[in-house]
Amino acid sequence: MLPCPLVQGVADHAAITRAAAVIRAGGTVAVPTETVYGLAARADSDQAVAAIYRAKGRPDFNPLIVHVGDLAQAETLARFDHAARALATAFWPGPLTLVLPRHDAAGLSAAVSAGLPTLALRVPAHPVIRALIAEARLPLAAPSANRSGSVSPTSAAHVAASLGDRVDLILDGGDCKRGIESTIVAIRPGGGWSVLRPGPIAPADIAALLGPAQASLAGGVIEAPGQLASHYAPGKPVRLNAATHSHDEFMIGFGPVAGAITLSAAGDCAEAAARLYACLHTAAAAPLPRIAIAPVPDHGIGEAINDRLRRAAA
Ligand code: AMP
Ligand code: MG
Predict the structure, then answer these.
(1) What's the fold here for domain 13-210?
(2) What is the pLDDT of residues 65-110, one digit of tens each?
(3) Which of 123, 147, 197, 117 is CA-nearest to residue 30?
């Protein structure tokens, strides 16, 4: 930790200048993105990357996503083939992470990829993280800004509650619009691809550009090591696909299934994604000992919502 008091204020120009100085000095900054809040540090420093793992209590086999300003900067860090370039052109800036062969001379800390020969890269769309990358003039490693395994943060208040004094500075950019982590796509030698983590960009959107996905090549190896069965855990039992709830369950509704709160009364999956983690945080803080959640349709971004819900319930 740097001897720098926590700032939780609007991410104006002065706050971003200060945050960039913290980053350049090797510190950690919680920063809004369009998906969830990230815990950012300079990706070229072993010490700075170690500070992320320490603050989150994250297992060191779980690699981080590196955030850059544009495709040109990304191409200095990893090898882009035709398929990777097509996806980057179509979806960046935006909620898509590409896993690509890492350049040996990229100058990044080995810890960002947890020893893997590949690198996970994203160009985010949110103006605050974009300004921070530009001002720091560095690639930023940034996993979600929460204690490892717990519910992801979609507001500065969530970050403060989870990491509080474990982060040097929090930039407040309001609530995250997408609310669910980026889609992660691995590009294979020869142009095959597969989704390692579902997210806001649907597989059909990728298939429209690259053709059908390849079957996973993992063969038992954990390919996206962060995809552990239990994750996003609210700290109490979660029951999925609930049409009704019992007296000791805090009910999260969706569409026609009402609850104490709802993911989306209108049954809108994009709204449900944006509200998902805030609802889980509310349910976690409620006095009732259990959580029940209404069914969410399993198509489009609903697939990503159900992926997160299964892990929250595991
Ligand atoms: P988070 O930073 O919390 O959004 O999690 C990052 C996700 O990216 C985790 O699921 C990691 O396993 C995944 N990831 C990061 N780097 C790689 C990589 N080189 N290969 C596969 N998955 C990766
Ligand atoms: Mg995370």
Answers:
(1) DHBP synthase (3.90.870)
(2) 999 999 999 999 999 999 999 999 999 999 999 999 999 889 999 9
(3) 147
**CATH 3.90.870.10 spans which residues of the chain?**
13-210
The H or E element that residue 247 is part of is none
The pTM of this model reads 0.91
Q: Which helix (H) or strand (E) holds 275?
A: helix 269-285
- Give Cβ neighbours of residue 227 (< 8 Å, ≥ 6 apart): 196, 197
- Describe the chain by its helix, strand, coil percentages, rounded to 5: 35, 20, 50
Mutation test residue for ligand 1: of 159, 183, 184, 231, the one with most atoms within 8 Å of CB: 184
Report the SS3 class of residue 266: coil
Q: Are 239 and 293 in contact (CB under 8 A)?
A: yes
Reply yes or no: is the peptide bond before residue 93 cis, omega within 30 of 0: yes
> Which residues, chain by chain, have CB under 5 Å from ion ligand 2?
144
